[in-house]
């Protein structure tokens, strides 16, 4: 019985790391747009809620029946939903075998404990609604009802059609008890909500009004690199079909100039920075010209050009066997990679040189930014182009009507108190 209850928790623990990694960039975008800064407490609260939701879902659907099991024949009574409220009391009386003792009615009654577990299932949801979202009892109750309805429909539809028949019972009593649990969680979180600081207050303490956070700039750069790479691939395919292979060589630099020079000059920011509510400005706060943007784009593209030269110089000179390199790139485990490299060690080392150089370059760039007094990168110091954060959507204070801006010198070191705006 213990394994039955631990299996959903173990399943959620296995799924969560991959889900968290997949959600990181979208989560960062939403947090930076709404709050301007990504504090560890807000991330912990958000991901804690995600892990709880995943665990609660697994508790309602795991363990799954084996594919060889005919669920329609094994669970015929689950085909018809239980719409009559109060059926849980009949189940409790049935499990007690009509004996009126504390052990029969409570301690040793599986129907009682199932109801208790259903009550506690969405209790953390009510706590989360009150602590994280600062919403009232009606919102917590509505969230509990919606979550419970999702679980019950998932069970009734046989995991949304994965199974021909339901393998768990749709019961209106579970819907009622789950919803009551969310409301109870909201009420129980009252003392905790009064003790814990508001997340918006923690955000305000961490928000530097005169410096765009490094993480915000990094996510914007990641979006820009990804978008430029996807656009390069799409344009290269069209150019190859229309003009041939020789013309494809001009696609990457043209797309790079378009993305990092022409678009910022026209709109004030790259597409990634638009998403993160950041725009590019000069030291004086104006819009940078073509020369400054071109210098910034060249500095950003220099590491990729160096890596391309390293890869182009090492792979052909090493005489690498393409089939061995494909094996190395497609190795699913360290033993596969070891066997592939053993077949062609020179080619394997040559292929690994580019990723290692890329990783070393990224580490060097990050360290250089952190060591700079104003937290600027090489592309920013050379070009004179700076990042200016526009007000986030829930802003309650800012460095003037246009938000904070990264500048150099003591003239821009005003205290946060001087940048407060009236609350709306």
Report a brief summary of the structure:
The protein is mainly α and 424 residues long.
Mean pLDDT: 81
Helical fraction: 55-70%
Alpha-carbon distance between the termini? Answer: 55 Å
Strand order in the sheet with the most strands: 1-2
Order of helices and strands: HHHHHHHHHHHHHHHHEHHHHHE
Molecular shape: elongated
Tell me the Rg in angstroms: 29 Å
The total count of helices amounts to 21
- What is the count of β-strands? 2
Strand composition percent: under 5%
The computed structural class is: mainly alpha
Low-pLDDT stretches: 317-334, 397-403, 407-424
Question: How would you explain this protein's 3D organization?
Answer:
This protein is mostly helical. 68% of the residues lie in helices and 2% in strands. It has 21 helices and 2 strands. It has helices at residues 2-35, 40-61, 71-74, 87-95, 102-107, 110-121, 123-131, 137-156, 158-161, 172-188, 190-195, 199-206, 214-243, 245-248, 251-267, 271-275, 290-318, 322-329, 334-343, 345-371, 378-383, and strands spanning 278-281, 386-389. Strands 1-2 form a two-stranded antiparallel ribbon. α15 packs antiparallel against α17 and α18 (322-329) runs antiparallel to α19 (334-343). The longest helix has 34 residues, at 2-35. It is elongated and about 85 Å long. Mean pLDDT is 81; it is low at 317-334, 397-403 and 407-424.
């Amino acid at each position: 019985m213990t394994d039955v209850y631990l299996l959903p928790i173990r399943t959620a623990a296995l799924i969560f790391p991959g889900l968290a990694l997949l959600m990181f960039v979208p989560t960062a975008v939403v947090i930076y747009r709404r709050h301007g800064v990504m504090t560890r407490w807000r991330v912990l609260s958000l991901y804690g809620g995600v892990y709880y939701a995943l665990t609660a879902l697994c508790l309602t659907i795991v363990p799954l029946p084996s594919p060889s099991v005919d669920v329609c024949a094994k669970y015929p009574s689950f085909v018809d939903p239980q719409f009559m409220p109060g059926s849980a009391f009949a189940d409790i009386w049935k499990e007690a075998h009509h004996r009126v003792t504390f052990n029969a009615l409570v301690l040793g009654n599986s129907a009682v404990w199932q109801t208790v577990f259903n009550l506690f299932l969405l209790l953390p949801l009510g706590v989360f609604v009150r602590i994280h979202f600062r919403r009232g009892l009606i919102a917590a109750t509505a969230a509990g009802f919606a979550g419970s309805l999702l679980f019950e429909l998932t069970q009734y539809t046989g995991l949304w059609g994965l199974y021909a028949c339901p393998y768990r019972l749709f019961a209106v009593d579970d819907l009622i008890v789950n919803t009551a649990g969310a409301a109870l969680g909201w009420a129980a979180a009252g003392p905790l909500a009064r003790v814990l600081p508001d997340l918006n207050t923690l955000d305000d303490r961490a928000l530097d009004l005169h410096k765009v956070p490094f993480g915000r700039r990094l996510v914007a750069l990641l979006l820009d690199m990804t978008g430029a790479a996807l656009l390069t691939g799409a344009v290269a395919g069209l150019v190859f079909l229309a003009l041939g292979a020789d013309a494809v060589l001009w696609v990457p630099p043209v797309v790079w100039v378009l993305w990092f020079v022409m678009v910022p000059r026209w709109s004030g920011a790259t597409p990634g920075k638009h998403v993160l509510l950041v725009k590019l400005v000069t030291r004086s706060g104006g819009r940078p010209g073509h020369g400054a943007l071109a210098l910034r784009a060249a500095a950003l593209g220099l590491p990729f050009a160096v890596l391309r030269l390293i890869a182009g110089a090492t792979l052909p000179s090493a005489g690498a066997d393409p089939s061995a390199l494909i094996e190395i790139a497609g190795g699913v485990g360290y033993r596969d990679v070891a066997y592939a490299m053993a077949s062609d060690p020179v080619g394997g080392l040559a292929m690994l040189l580019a990723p290692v150089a890329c990783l070393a370059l990224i580490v060097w760039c990050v360290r250089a930014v952190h060591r700079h007094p104003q937290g600027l990168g090489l592309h920013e110091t050379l070009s004179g182009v700076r990042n200016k954060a526009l007000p986030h959507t829930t802003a309650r204070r800012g460095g003037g009507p246009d938000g904070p801006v990264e500048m150099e010198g003591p003239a821009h070191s005003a205290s946060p108190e001087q940048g407060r705006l009236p609350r709306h």
